Amino acid sequence: MIEKIFVKEGIKKVRMNEYFGKELERAGYGGMEIKRTPMGTQITVSVEKPGMIIGKDGRRIKRLTEDINRRQELDNPQIDVQPIEVPDLSAPLMANRLAKLIERGWHFRRAGRSTLQRIMDKGALGCEITMSGKIKGPRSRMEKMIDGYIKHCGAVAEEIVDHGYAIAKVKSGVIGVSVWIVKPDAKRPDTFRIIATDKNVNEEEERIEGEEGKEKEE
Q1: Which of 50, 139, 206, 208 has its CA at a distance of 20 to 30 angstroms from the CA of residue 121?
Q2: Per CATH, is 2-83 categorized as 3.10.20.30?
Q3: In what order do the strands lie in the sheet with 173-182?
Q4: Phi, psi at residue 20, to the nearest 5°?
Q5: Domain 87-182 CATH class label
Q6: How far is CA 103 from CA 4, 32, 110, 144, 145, in A?
């Protein structure tokens, strides 16, 4: 029974993500987060342009809240709008931008390389972009572009890697676009640094003094 509850909640989250992606596309939708509270359901939406969601006197956000309450069957939903500090480091937003470039007629390699370079120029530790579908010719294929450090699996990947997915609709069919970004402030588990202790410093100073003394004697 508990498995069915998790599946049901997961389906609700996917539907809400698709709903926000369509409704808030012009505002630069960059993902959402749902938290259960004693007062109801807290929905935190990250966007590039918060003013377009709130609207005049908060009318639009009220309409969105009422629509979610009617369609998604959530307990007392409350929407909190948060601005995206660095839009070029938001994986969902960059995936959507890349899909739009492909729809406008950009060559998929040119669009992908441009997006990858833009992300890395903002200080990202790593980025991976994949495009799959009929990107060139009648047969389906996949194009992958990687730069920097990327973690693909494990709990660490869920913590430090931001993932975004979008769909580009072209004449030949549908192209799926996925973007993975490791942000500059991410804590990599395999990094290390050497810290000099007092003992090591003293030994190094004694070694240098000994070498200088030998040179003076000679």
Answers
A1: 50
A2: no
A3: 141-148, 126-133, 173-182, 161-170
A4: -65, -35
A5: alpha beta
A6: 38, 25, 13, 18, 19
User: How high does pLDDT run on average in the chain?
Assistant: 81
Strand partners, 141: 133
Both tokens of 133, joined, read 């579908």
Q: List the alpha helices (DSSP H) in 104-192.
A: 108-121, 155-160
Report pLDDT digits (tens) over 18-57: 888 888 878 888 888 888 877 778 888 888 888 777 766 6
Q: Give me the helices (H) in the chain, please.
A: 2-23, 50-54, 59-71, 91-103, 108-121, 155-160, 198-217
Would you state the pLDDT for residue 121?
92
Q: Do strands 29-37 and 126-133 pair parallel, antiparallel, or not at all (unpaired)?
A: unpaired
Name the 3-class secondary structure at 144.
strand
> Rounded to an integer, what is the distance from CA 76 to the centroid of its chain?
28
Domain 87-182 in the same topology as domain 2-83: no
Cross-strand pairs, 166 = 177
What is the spatial distance between Cα 33 and Cα 28, in angstroms, rounded to a whole number?
Answer: 16
* pLDDT, tens digit (0-9, with 9 covering 90-100), for 72-101: 667 778 888 888 888 888 898 999 999 999
pLDDT above 90: residue 177: yes
DSSP 11-36: HHHHHHHHHHHHHTTTTTEEEEEEEE
